Amino acid sequence: MPGAGTDKTRNWIEAPGPVIILVEPQLGENIGAVARVMANFGLGRLRLVKPRDGWPNPKAVANASGADSVIEAARLFDTPEAAIADLERVYATTARHRGMIKRVVTPRRAAAEMRQRIGAGEAVGVLFGPERMGLVNELVALADAVISVPLNPGFASLNLGQAVLLLGYEWFQAADKTPASELVTNETRPAVKAELLNFFEHLEKELDDCGFLRNAEKRPSMVRNIRNLFQRTGLTHQEIRTLHGIVAELATHRQRRKRG
Question: What whole-number distance in Å separates Cα of residue 154 and Cα of residue 176?
């Protein structure tokens, strides 16, 4: 019910909560609608990647309908990779089958998982793609899981605000159902995305150098598959360091054999 039940004397934003990341949103009005929905469900962290109409945007402010704290705290990024770099768990929203091996969850399942992980101290984010076409495959491949909403298959189109609303609602409803949990990582921590991306660059460079990725036509899909393989394992900071060492040692051994 529009406007019903709003207490203007309160300005409650839950912290921490999942980071909402809008990749190349097209209209300021849609960003404002997302900010309004986020405030409805106590979410305060909004990140924007290259909004088409620039930022700040007066139309976003007008359409936020008073969710000024979300708009004012919004952070701007040049790339999706930069927007997720400090996160340890990332979900991607998509309505299309992408032909890759990726765990798919409903908003309800995702909300429960996010409650558990954030409660254990992890930083979690959700990627939403442009209104017209959604996320490209390369960004879906960077996510740990995909969120897909069960809808009428004959008409499954959602606008940006609706998509965030569904996730926000499930996040809010999951508040009283979260079991107590403890993350045990043997004195390390889950890897953040910047560490994972750095490892991908290291690994893919060595795979290029040794000729494993020599097929230019198949290279993009091979890279996505390799990245998805490591995404599914939930690597820790220490495991990333170990993998760097393995790749470096293999490269050194190959170079020695070539010289010998």
Answer: 34
SS3 (DSSP) at 23:
strand
**Model pTM score:** 0.82
Q: What is the mean pLDDT of residues 70-89?
A: 97
Residue with structure tokens 């004959």? Answer: 154
| Predicted pLDDT of residue 115 | 94
DSSP-derived 3-state class of residue 42: coil
State how far the Cα of 12 lies from the Cα of 242, in Å rounded to an integer: 43
Average pLDDT over residues 219-224: 95
Contacts 24+ apart (CB under 8 A), 198-207: 199/230, 199/240, 199/243, 199/244, 200/226, 200/227, 200/230, 202/244, 202/247, 202/248, 203/243, 203/247, 206/247, 206/250, 206/251
Structure letter (DSSP) for residue 69:
H
E-assigned strand segments in the chain: 19-23, 46-49, 75-77, 89-93, 104-105, 124-128, 145-147
Q: Which amino acid is at 240?
A: I
* Complete domains list, the chain, with CATH: 19-176 (3.40.1280.10), 193-259 (1.10.8)
